[in-house]
Structures are given as C-alpha cells and as structure tokens.
C-alpha cells in the first residue's frame, strides 16, 4: 500500500486520540485495511471510542490486506520521513507467528516512485485475529452542519464533569425537543444547555443519549476547518456514530439516567444584568491571579443606579474593578458571589458573535439560587451556582 505522507501523517494525528492501551497492548495499534484498488482504512480503538479514517492509496496489494502496527512507532517513522510517499508491504520474515512489515519512504523521480531514496524500516506486525472486533456500521439517517454542531459542542462541553466517578454526568446528554435536538452538559456546579436549532435526530426517537466527552473532543478535531461539511449522524440503543467525509467515529453511550436539570434553570421574571462579554472576560482574567481561596471567589456588587458593577475579591483579596452594565428589574441588594473560573468559562463558551450576555437572577428564590447566562442570538443557557461570600 502506498500513501501520501502528509495525508497519512494528518490521519495518524487524529487516530492517536483514540489509540489507548488500558493494559491491552494491541489497543495501542493502528489497524490498516485495503478496501479497494484506490482506498484503505486506518482504525484505532480504546474499546469505547473507535476512529476510522479512509485514505487514498495505491499499490498491488490484494483487497482485504491488513497491517496492524504499533501507532507510536509507525507515527514516529512517518514524521521522520521526508519523501512524498509512504509504502507498506508485508515481508516473508516472521517473529514467532507475526509477520514483519516493511515501511519505506520515497520521492517522485521523473514520474516514477523511488522508495529507497529516504529511509526503510521494519515493524513487527500484529495478527489480525489479535485486534478487538470493530463495531458494525450504523445506518445514517440524520445529518447536521459541521459549523453549527461545533458551536453547540463548544458551548456545552466545558460544563461536562471530568470526575470519572460521576459516570452519569460524564458526557453530553441529547434529547429531541420542539425547537431541535437539545445538548446538555453539567458537573453538578454548573450546567450548559443549547439546542441545535431545526435538527431532530430521528434515530434517537423520544429517548435520550449521553455521549462521553472524548467523543465530542474527537469530533471537534475531525471537523476543524470544515464549517460547511455535512456530518452524518446515527444512534442505536448502545452507540452513536458520525461520518464526516472519509472519517467515521463510533462511541458507546454512557449508561445511567441523566439527572433532571430543568428545575435548576432560573425563571425569566427576576433580575437581568446585560453585560459586554469580552471586556468582562478580560477584566476577570486580569483579576484571577489576585483572587484568593480555593474557588477564586469574586463578589459582584451592582450600583444602585444600575449602570455598573464592582468586581472584588472575596475574603482577604484586595482585587477590585468596575465594569459597565445595563440593569433590568430590581437591583440586587446584596453582592453575588461566584467562582471566577466558572464565570470566565461561562462567558467564553458563547460564540464570538455574541457581544452581549444577560445574567438572569431568580430574585424570588434568594441569592444562593442558580444564576443563568443567556444570549438572545444563540438560544444557549449556561447556569452557574453562586458561592457564599465570606
């Protein structure tokens, strides 16, 4: 099999993110299979997430020819090579029962491919029957625009927990709602919700699915620089699969029931503070190193005339700054305490075109009720739990 080196290197970079060992050495390998006269598929798996990339290839290998190589070693060889092409071929040599695979790098010379002009190395191949069974391909009946899907993921993903013990929260939960498929992420202290407007996943039906964080990170990498691409999507009871051009991702769904999050979203009849998103992010980031305490607490005090707010550090911190805002509704009588890192993440999760963000406070429920961040253009909501001010 003969590959373009740059295309192969790019594919191996994406495949690295789903090549895991988990104590099983073969999971650190890339599975290479000849699909047709002009195409091959490269696959990696960590038993939860499977990434498959189809690449153009040439050569005289028979259809179904496979090479299973240690990803780390093969990727290092491709990075070190300087030729335009990478050739793989099985040799007659064996290590035990395993074939030795020869990899060589070559350049074009007067229209001919020369594979001894750069470097040649050999790898101990893995037998095909040692690699875990790959999932069956699902039927793709749904689709979404890559750019719109990325915007939704980028807003919701920061709120997903990284605590592996909270298994039912370790992913983005998806349900079909009237206005589109709804994406939700939470870590118990904050929550992000965003609909994918106008898109309904018919393969999901009336149920829900929680998809692990690693899948969404891989999808962001796979769709980078492809805002107009169409992402084909499919669900079954145990997995989700997407396909973008020649890349396919398949992932097992997270088990367990997702918590009822609707009860923590503040009502819309309370206090609303409209702020300029970017200046607030810049000021909070400059204050962050000066904020003490485990949670980098910041106190937000709204001026009585409703035109500005004072940000000050909680506890012994003397950090202090004033920023403009527009107040709608009753003026908060007490300062509002927030984790500055959560506040920055909430504001950054909105897309760049969201210049203004509304901070909605349910004044009827007291100041330790959840606080919502919204933007009229994106229809997304980020909810953050306030903290007590010492």
Structural notes for this entry:
The chain is an alpha+beta fold. The protein has three domains: 2-130, DNA Polymerase III, Chain A, domain 2; 142-252, DNA Polymerase III, Chain A, domain 2, CATH 3.10.150.10; 265-384, DNA Polymerase III, Chain A, domain 2. Helix content is 16%, strand content 40%. The chain is built from six helices and 26 strands. The protein has helices spanning 5-16, 71-80, 146-156, 213-222, 277-287, 340-348; strands at 2-4, 29-36, 39-45, 49-56, 66-70, 85-95, 98-109, 112-114, 120-124, 142-145, 171-177, 180-186, 190-197, 208-212, 230-235, 239-244, 247-252, 271-276, 297-302, 308-313, 320-324, 326-328, 336-339, 356-361, 371-374, 381-384. A hairpin with a 3-residue loop joins β12 and β13 (190-197). α1 (5-16) runs antiparallel to α2 (71-80) and α5 (277-287) packs antiparallel against α6 (340-348). It starts with a strand and ends in a 6-residue tail after the last strand. The model is unreliable at 113-117 (pLDDT under 50).
List the helices and strands and how they pair.
Blueprint: E1 2-4, H1 5-16, E2 29-36, E3 39-45, E4 49-56, E5 66-70, H2 71-80, E6 85-95, E7 98-109, E8 112-114, E9 120-124, E10 142-145, H3 146-156, E11 171-177, E12 180-186, E13 190-197, E14 208-212, H4 213-222, E15 230-235, E16 239-244, E17 247-252, E18 271-276, H5 277-287, E19 297-302, E20 308-313, E21 320-324, E22 326-328, E23 336-339, H6 340-348, E24 356-361, E25 371-374, E26 381-384
Antiparallel strand pairs: 1-6, 2-3, 2-5, 3-4, 4-17, 6-7, 7-8, 7-9, 10-15, 11-12, 11-14, 12-13, 13-26, 15-16, 16-17, 18-22, 18-24, 19-20, 19-23, 20-21, 24-25, 25-26
């Amino acid at each position: 099999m003969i590959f373009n080196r740059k295309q192969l290197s790019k594919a191996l970079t994406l495949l690295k993110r789903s090549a895991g060992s988990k104590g099983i050495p073969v999971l650190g390998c890339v599975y290479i299979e000849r699909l047709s006269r002009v195409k091959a598929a490269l696959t990696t798996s960590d038993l939860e997430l499977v990434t498959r990339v189809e690449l153009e290839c040439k050569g005289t290998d028979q259809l179904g020819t496979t090479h299973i190589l240690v990803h780390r070693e093969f990727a290092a060889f491709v990075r070190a090579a300087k030729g335009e092409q990478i050739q793989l071929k099985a040799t007659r040599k064996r290590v035990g029962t395993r074939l030795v695979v020869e990899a060589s790098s070559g350049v074009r010379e007067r229209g001919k491919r020369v594979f001894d002009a750069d470097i040649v190395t050999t790898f101990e191949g893995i037998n095909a029957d040692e690699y875990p069974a790959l999932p069956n391909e699902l039927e793709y009946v749904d689709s979404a625009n890559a750019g719109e899907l990325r915007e939704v993921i980028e807003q919701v993903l920061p709120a997903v927990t990284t605590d592996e013990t909270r298994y039912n929260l370790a992913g983005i939960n998806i349900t079909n709602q009237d206005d589109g498929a709804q994406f939700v992420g939470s870590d118990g202290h904050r929550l992000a919700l965003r609909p994918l407007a106008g898109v309904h996943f018919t393969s999901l039906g009336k149920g829900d699915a929680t998809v692990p964080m690693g899948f969404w990170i891989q999808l962001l990498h796979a769709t980078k620089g492809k805002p107009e691409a169409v992402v084909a999507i499919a669900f079954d009871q145990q997995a989700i699969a997407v396909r973008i051009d020649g890349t396919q991702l398949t992932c097992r769904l997270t088990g367990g029931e997702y918590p009822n999050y609707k009860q923590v979203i503040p009502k819309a009849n309370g206090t609303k503070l409209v702020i300029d998103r970017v200046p607030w992010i810049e000021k909070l980031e400059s204050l962050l190193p000066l904020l003490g305490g485990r949670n980098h607490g910041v106190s937000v005090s709204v001026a009585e005339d409703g035109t500005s707010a004072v940000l000050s550090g909680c506890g012994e911190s003397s950090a202090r700054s004033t920023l403009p805002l527009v107040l709608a509704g009753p003026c908060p009588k007490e300062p509002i305490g927030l984790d500055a890192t959560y506040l920055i993440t909430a504001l950054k999760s909105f897309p760049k075109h969201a210049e203004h963000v509304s901070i909605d406070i349910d004044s009827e429920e007291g100041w330790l009720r959840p606080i919502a961040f919204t933007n009229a253009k994106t229809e997304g909501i980020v909810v953050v739990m306030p903290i007590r001010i010492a």
